[in-house]
Amino acid sequence: MQDLFFFKKSVDSLESRSESFNRSIFEARAVQLDPPEEPEQPCQESLTFNTYSTTAHAKKTFNANATESVLLNTGFVNELMNPYFEELMVSEIFGLLIQIMLSIQLI
Questions:
Q1: What is the reported pTM?
Q2: Cα separation, 51 vs 28, whole angstroms
Q3: Where does the pLDDT of residue 64 fall: very low under 50, low under 70, confident under 90, or very high at 90 and above?
Q4: pLDDT at site 65
Q5: CA distance 14 to 70
Q6: Cβ proximity of 62 and 17 under 8 Å
Q7: What is the per-residue pLDDT across 10-63, written as a single tens digit (0 to 9) for each?
Q8: What sign has the CA pseudo-torsion 50, 53, 56, 58?
Q9: What is the pLDDT of residue 67?
Q10: Is residue 19 part of a domain?
Q11: 21 lies in which domain range?
């Protein structure tokens, strides 16, 4: 394992993609079966015609994906470090430790 340090400017970005469609919130006929009051009786059927939901959203989003990327920069690097950077570029798995250094001025 090799440690590589990127101490110059870095840029974080997040790109998202999704698809959406307009769905119908209209119900032409709704059937509801209520349990009987006595066990021997059949279920009570109630019908409603031409209704729509006032709370359901017509636009439906699906297939949402996001990609996060980090652009890193180093200072001057000796040519002998090239194999390490090449290995980093073709690696499928690597670890990234981000340390944030803050400078605070008290007035």
A1: 0.50
A2: 7
A3: very high
A4: 94
A5: 9
A6: no
A7: 888 999 999 999 888 777 777 778 887 777 888 877 777 777 778 888 888 899
A8: positive
A9: 93
A10: yes
A11: 11-90
Cα 91 to Cα 1, 51, 68, distances in angstroms: 12, 56, 17
Number of domains comprising the chain: 1
Residue burial 23-62, b: 16+ Cβ < 10 Å; e: rest = eeeeeeeeeeeeeeeeeeeeeeeeeeeeeeeeeeeeeeee
Instruction: Name the amino acid, one letter, at 62.
Output: F
Quote the Cα angle for 81-85-89, to 5°: 170
The reply to whether 97 falls in a domain is: no
In 1-107, where does DSSP find H-type helix?
Answer: 82-90
For residue 24, being part of any structural domain is answered with: yes
Task: Copy the structure tokens of residue 62.
Answer: 């699906």
**Spatial CB neighbours of 60, under 8 Å, sequence gap ≥ 6:** 20, 21, 22, 23
